[in-house]
Each structure stands twice: as C-alpha cells, then as structure tokens.
Amino acid sequence: REPEVFLMDEPLANLDAELRVHMRTQLQRLHRELDTTIIYVTHDQAQAMTMSDRIAVIDSGELQQVDPPLTCYNEPDNLFVAGFIGSPAMNFVEGEITEDGFTSTYMDLEFDPASQGVERGQAVTLGVRPEDVYLERNSEQAAVPTGTYDRIVDVLEPMGDEMFIYLLSDEDVEASAEGRGEGQTLMSVGPEEVLGEGENVEVVFDRDKIHLFDTEAGRAIVHGLE
Fold first, then answer.
1. How many domains does the chain have?
2. Any residues with CB less than 8 A from the CB of 92 and at least 6 apart, and which?
C-alpha cells in the first residue's frame, strides 16, 4: 500500500518524557523518508512546534488558525492562539485606547493610535511574551525598548538554562492582598541573573514584540508597535 495521507492521533501520549523526545526525532525521519502527508493530532505544543510544517489550531471544534509554527507563535490570529501557543504563555493586560496610546490599571504605553489601526475608547488587550520582557539593565537586548516599569519580584523559578520571574506592580500587591490580583507579569531571564523575592526592579518591554488584540472580538489588531 502507498497511502496518500497518514493519520496519527496522539501516538506518543502514553510514553515517558525521554522516550517522547526520542520518538519525535524518529517520526521526523520517517516523514522525511516517506515524503507523504501526515496529519498529526496532539495537545503537546513541543510536538506541534517541532514536527509540523503547518499547525491547525482548533478550539471547541472551530478552526482558529492554520500557519507555519513560527507564524502561529509570532503572529497569532487571536487571543486564543496567542495564549495557547507558547509555554510559558503570553502575558496579557486588558486596557483601552486613549489619545496617547494604551492605558490600564497596571501600565501605560504611548503610541499613535491611528498608526496602529485602533480608536480612542476601544477596549484592547496588550500581549507580550515572557522572553520579550527585560530587566532595565539589559534593555539593549530589546530591539526597541519601551520606557521602564517598576515591578516587585514575587516568585522565582530556576529552570537550569533559564529562570522564570513572576512580577507584580504596586497595584498587583494591593489587589492580591484583597484576593483579586490578576496583573502578574512573567519574564524569562538567563540563569546568571541574581534576584531575590520581594526585590524592586525596573523592566522594559520590546515594542517590536508587543501585540494588540480586540478584547471583545479576540482578533489580533497589530503585531509589533511602530
């Protein structure tokens, strides 16, 4: 038999982590040798990102986006794809557009609304990935850094090759104390950074990697601020 399409439904789901990584490479070699289309169903983002030529992201039976993996990651079509693709997930901040740009409880950001296709009073959600948030002292690593934001280190998660840092603003600290905190920001830094929980830091975002989404409709408006 020479089928035109192979269907694989979660073939690695019951394997341990080490064997899953090994089998990923084996399946990629098999795909190359067969040179045949494979439809591969998975909930594992690592498998989807590393093995596919194109990803079809589905939510509740509805197709959200079909694109190459890095397009889904860098230019998600909507809030669902932006939050689903990527681990750890993208940071989201809900706010609205003013005549000067974006404003919210947790941060403000200046830009020309007209140049970004948004209108004053429009409810938007700002998105930025953890690797696009930088300590101010490393701001030269950002292509186009924003102004600085004061944050407080809440939790540190050393991962070996990197460290995840959960940050709070003053408003976050007050809200968390009242049981209503929701503005936490996650950033990813190198393992060489020395920080302590409760420490005050200044951070910047990379404007080139900031996303704006229509909060109500969920659709992406812009990827990268001018």
1. 2
2. 79, 82, 83, 125, 126, 127
One domain for residues 182 and 199 = yes
Between CA 173 and CA 190 the distance in angstroms is 25
Is 144 exposed, middle or buried, given 0-12, 13-18 or 19+ CB atoms closer than 10 A? middle
- Is the pLDDT score of 110 beyond 90? yes
Q: Give me the residues paired with residue 213 across strands.
A: 125, 220
Q: Which of 28, 57, 84 lies at the terminal end of a domain, its last residue?
A: 84
Give the CATH number of the domain where residue 34 resides. 3.40.50.300
Query: In terms of DSSP bridges, do strands 133-135 and 220-223 run parallel, antiparallel, or are they unpaired?
Result: unpaired
- The model's pLDDT over 41-77, given as tens digits with 9 standing for 90+, comes to 999 999 999 999 999 999 999 999 999 999 999 999 9
Specify whether 181 is located in the same domain as 120: yes
CATH of the domain at 191: 2.40.50.140
Domain span holding position 80: 5-84
Q: Is the pTM of this model over 0.85?
A: yes
- DSSP H helical ranges for the chain: 17-34, 45-51, 69-74, 79-84, 113-116, 170-177
